[in-house]
Structure formats: C-alpha cells, structure tokens
Amino acid sequence: MRMISLDGQWELYYLQQGELDIDHPVALRASELKPIAAAVPGNVELDLCGAGILPDPYVGENIHLLKPYETYEWWYQRKLTVEPSGVKHELVFHGVDCVATYWLDGQEIGRSDNMLIEHRFDVTGLLQPGQEHVLTVRLQSPVIAALGRTYDPSSYAFPVNAEQLWIRKAAHSFGWDIFGRALSAGLWRSVELVYHEPNEIADMHFATTKANERQAHVQVFYQFAVEPRTLNGLQLRMRGVCGDSLFEVTRGLKFAYGTMELTVERPKLWWPRGYGAANLYTVTTELLHDGDVIASRTGTLGIRTLELLRSDVTTLERPGQFQFKVNGFPIMVKGSNWVPLDMFHSRDAGKYAEAVALAADLECNMLRCWGGGVYEDHAFFDLCDRSGILVWQDFAMACAMYPQDLEFQDMLRKEALAVVRKLRNHPSLAVWAGDNECDEIFLDRGLDPNQNVLTRKVLKDAVFQCDPYRPYVPSSPYISPEAYRLGTPDCLPERHLWGPRDYFKSLYYTSANMHFIGETGYHGCPNLSTMEKFLDSGSVWPWQDNPQWITHGTDPVGGPDSPYRFRVKLMADQIYELFGGHPDTVEDFILASQISQAEAKKFFIEKARLSKGRCGGILWWNLLDGWPQFSDAVVDYYGGKKLAYHYIKRVQQPVCIMIDEPENWHVAVKVGNDSLTAASGPFRIWDAESGETLLEGTFSVEANGLAELGRIRAPYSMQRLLLIEWTVDGKSFGNHYLMGSPGFSLERYRRWLDAIALLPHSFDAAQLGK
Predict the structure, then answer these.
(1) Is 0.90 surpassed by the pTM of this model?
(2) What single-letter DSSP state applies at residue 62?
(3) 497, 484, 475, 498: which is closest to 401 by C-alpha?
(4) Using one digit for the tens of pLDDT, what is the confidence trace for 50-59?
(5) Residue limits of the Glycoside hydrolase family 2 immunoglobulin-like beta-sandwich domain (predicted)?
(6) H helix and E strand count, the chain
(7) Across the strands, what pairs with 334?
(8) Which domains does the chain have, with CATH numbers?
(9) Which of 21, 236, 526, 613 would bridge with 636, disulfide CB 3.0–4.6 Å?
(10) For the chain, first and last CA: distance in Å?
(11) Can you spell out the DSSP letters for 608-644?
C-alpha cells in the first residue's frame, strides 16, 4: 500500500452549535464565518491560542476559560490534489475527537463517534487525477451529544464528569483530579490517504506459546488480500533475524487466511528490564505467487511467554497470588502508572521518547496505561518493546458505571476489537484490564460488579477473539464473586492503595496485605521554576486559600463548593506529618513536600521488594504530569525532576540493599535481587552524622532472591539517617534509611540530604526544588 499524509495546516471554522443553520459544507461556504489556521494533528484550543483568541490554558486559572467552548462545533477543511493508484482508496483518520461527520467534495463519506480508535472510509472512485478536492470534517459538541442520550439507574458517574458515560473519548477530558476540564476537539492524530494494491499482507499476528533458551514455538496467524486468480501457487516466506539468531520458513498456502507454528532453535528471548535483553527479531514476510513476490511486510517479533498467576481472593487462611511470569520466571514488577503526556493529545506523540527514557532510567519494568486516558500509539509501544518495559493496558473506562445496554455494548466491542488487533503484536503488552476502579464504583453503589456485562462479557470475549494467549483481568482492582461475598478490600490480591493519604508508614500502609499494588502515590510540590511558569507572579505564595494553587491541585471544577479543593491542604498536611509544622517560605515548602513524597514512594517500593515472594510488584502513581500541577508525579509537566525521582532510581536497581522497619529493638538489613543472575559484593552501612559504621561485610544473594545481611539496633525513639553503599561487578550503588518516628527537623534533614546526594547515582542537592 502507499500512504499520502494529509497532515499540516487546515482551515478551522467554529460556532456555537445550533446558532446558525449549517449542516453541510455548502452551507458552511455560504456563511460569513471566517476560518483560523489549524494544525493537524492538533486540538482546537491550541489553534485558538495560536490565533490569539485564547490565553495559555496551562497558566493561572485560564483553564476555566475553555468552558464556553464546550457547546461549540468545529469544521476542519482542506484542499487536496492527488494522483490515485491501486485498486482501493481509503481516507484514514487515526484520531478524531470526537462526534464527527466527513465529506469529500460535499458528498458524505461517513460518521464516527469514538476518539480512541482510527476510522477508515472507502473513497474508491471519488478521486480524480489532477483534480482539486475538498475534504471537510465537522466535529459536534460532546456535551450536546451526551444530552441526547438516555440514562438508566445501572449507570453512574461522578457529578463533575457525568458526560463521559456515553461519549467515547478520554474520560479525564471531562475533568479529573489529575487534569483540568478540557473537553477539546480536533483531528488529534494523523490523517492519511491510502492506496491499496490488489495483493497485500492484511494482517500478521505472532504469539509465543512455549519458550526457553533451547527452543521456542510461535503461533503465526496471517491474512492476505489477494486476487482470486492468484490463490493457486501462493506461498508464504518468512525470515527473522536477531543478531546471530536466524529463522527461515517457506510454506505453500491453500487460502488467504491460516495459521502455522514456527519453531525457533536457540532463540534470543525478550526479557523485561533487569532480567535480560529486550531482544527483537526483524521479521520480513513475503507473499509469493509462482515464485514471484507480490507483497511484503517487515516488522518486529519479541519471543517471550507471559503468564499472570492470580487468585480471585487472598485471606490469611488461603493466601492467594498476583504474579507475572516471563519465560517461566517470576518477575518482580517495579514501575509506574502512565497517564497521557498532555491534556491536549495531539502533543502526546512528540513526548513519547523522552518519557519512556525516563521510565527506563528509573529501571521501571512495567507501565500501566490508566483507563481514564487514551490508547497510546505504536510509537509508544515500540519504545517499550526496545526498552524491556512491560505495559499493563486498561481499556478506556474509569471510575464509573458505564451503560449496560446493547448499543453501548456494540460501541465498546467495536473499540476493543480495533485496539486489540492494533496492539497485540507488541511483546511489551503484558495484560488487558477491563477498566480502572469501576468495580469499586459498583461496590460503593451497593451493586455487584460481576453483573457488569461490559467487563465480564464484552471485553473478555473481544480479547479472547483477537488475542487469546494474553491475560485479561476484568477490572483494576478486580472484585471477583468470592471477593464480593467477603466484602472487604483486604481480600483483593491486587489493590489501589490510597486510603487516608496520611503518614506513609501509618497502619493503613504497613498492614496492607495485597499481592500487587496497582496504584499508590504521595503528593510532591513541583520545582519553583516550574511553578513560576504556570502561576501568576502574585500567586506563587502562600499556599493557603490560593485559587491558582487549588486550580492546579488539580481542581477541574472551580468554585468554593468544589470537591477537589482539599488536595492542596492534603499536601500541606503530609508535610506536617513528617516535620511537625508548615514551612514559612515557598522554598522550604517545596523542599519539605519533595522530601515527604520521596521518602513515601521509596518506602512503598521497598515494602513491596521486602515482601518478595508474597508481593508480585508495585506500580506507583505516577511518572509524569500531563498538565502543570501539584501532584503525585515525580517529573513535572515541564520536565523538572522532583527528589522522588532520584530516590526511586536507587531503590529500583535490580540489586538493592534495603532496611526493613523496626522489630524487637532492631531493623533487618536485606538485599533484594530482581534479576536472573546471582549477585555478591562488599557493602557498608553508616550513620550520616557520626560516620560510625553500623554494619559491613560481603553480601551474597541468589538470582531472583532476597537475603538478610544482619540487624542494627533501632529504638523507635531514635531519629537518625543510615547511609548504605554496595558494589556489584565493580559498580557502586547507594540507598539510605530514615530511622525513627516523626516529626523530624527540616533543617536536620537538609543536612542529611547533602550526604544522601553524594551516594552513587548522585544528584545536586543544592538545586532541589529550584
């Protein structure tokens, strides 16, 4: 096939929906509306900013200025002149937000109502060589579309974003606690004109069913578009190369669809980060007729098996599990939740490389794509494939009870089939999850989430139909029939650990009994230079009763009765818990908040690693902000790294020495090894102030193991900082342990911070918070 990009500058017309009688490009042309320049891919708010009509919505309280545009409609238009070829012509819109009608030269060619998937329209015979054509797309208001729907008692969403239920677009755009309310509209991904040839490789899917170092078995599913006259004499030729590993196969074909099993001797396996190389084969597939190549395709293949061993419940009497295994080995998951990289999604793709590089630098081996966002594109998954980062993929539903009727089921089924078929070849893709926290919403409403036909039937069937070898979980967290009967979150093998968000070593956190932490976080103030970018100069300080702090807290609603106003106070209270007071200056507030966040997230990760065997992993919330805010992210919207980033980098190293919480007057020193190679080397632990060595020697830990190295006396009343350093294969690593109970002195911790910063993977303590 041949593709012609239609990206670039388009014209954009806009008006209050219903204000004028415009329902066709002819009526648009006859109106007196004047267009502005629009970028494709793009979002209308960015175009309005570029035209000087809107101020920067990321700054101050400008986000609330978008509200009047929620009931507008938007008309994109451009001219094109082409030289058609091939036997079939398609217009492909990779992302359209959201309720759209399409015309070519005034002839309607289709409609769509889903931002999250691509849309294809057959325009064969409508394009003439050398002739100028006009392509028009009308985007209507999602709020008005939502008003036209019927709602039942089996549906529910929070009052602040109830419009999301029937509208298939990123749920956060209706307002969330991590994004401002920005309903948006736009051709947010690329637009292409595709010319299809008579013979094409329409689809290839690879699924590894068995794999070890000696041999791998890969199921290959293929489908071709071929001329009927070529069915006799068809052959499939496939060649894969990864370094010095090679496989080749040629098979005769009886039909344009089929399956076969590929055997690869001594394969180079794909491994998650920390466990081995993320090996990828370059696979060239050729379709031959009577020995001549009539179609070809090149892609990548990661040979690996993946299992998710999980139980429906876990109790003291019947301990359960939630454990990922790759190539037969249990993997300790250490990673982050992934939210969209920008409030306006046309900007997402340009940030992929830097964001995934940050995850790799932190030694994340999994990212969870949260259900309130979008399905990321191939470029994101390609980066994860190469970086050895597994992806937990939620379907795009979050924190609501979505419509159960047949029409919505059909909408969701179509979406799921499109997304699963698109992404299923990526070795990084680990698991499909039905939604984010929707089971909990059912429970909160006094209903059984197992009656939810969307996640128990529609999505489950779609995954089995198109990707039957990959795990599926109905919800995150999933409340099984047995868990529903038990009626306590303590029985869930996978949980989101939020709770009161009090002291990070409170009983809520230390007594949590799950096997996998799907979410947990802690607030951290962004750097001052970042705050000065999104707050007006007079609003940088103080934090109390500051409307701009509240807006970026994040409060997508605004006003004195908003349910989100508490979040700034929560951040301040977390500082108070650790240091026994609220700082008097913005510089000290930032530093204290970043210390609080960093110690909390370090503790959560260490708690998971120290529970290895029982705990299968942790996905902390979250890596990056999608708009400027005070949040749980460890890297702010403008790329500023908080202190937590540096602490997490140290404690997510494959081999890490950690100190457990006090018991019987002592703390235990342990070494965790999340790799497939045994490790050993020297280590030392000393007091940060006196320099006294408290424990030293040589450690040894088996592959994928956890070992105790000794104990250090630690009365609860003693506040001190312990510094840790160890060496593996000639490379040094560092960590620390904050001993004692709060409140700690901020000035004393500031001195400790200078010593912490000098440990391996050092950072500049003097620049923290600036």
Answers:
(1) yes
(2) G
(3) 475
(4) 999 999 999 9
(5) 257-304
(6) 17, 39
(7) 618
(8) 2-195 (2.60.120.260), 199-301 (2.60.40.10), 653-739 (2.60.40.10)
(9) 526
(10) 51
(11) HHHTBTTB-EEEEB-SB-SSS-SBS-SB-TTSPBPHH
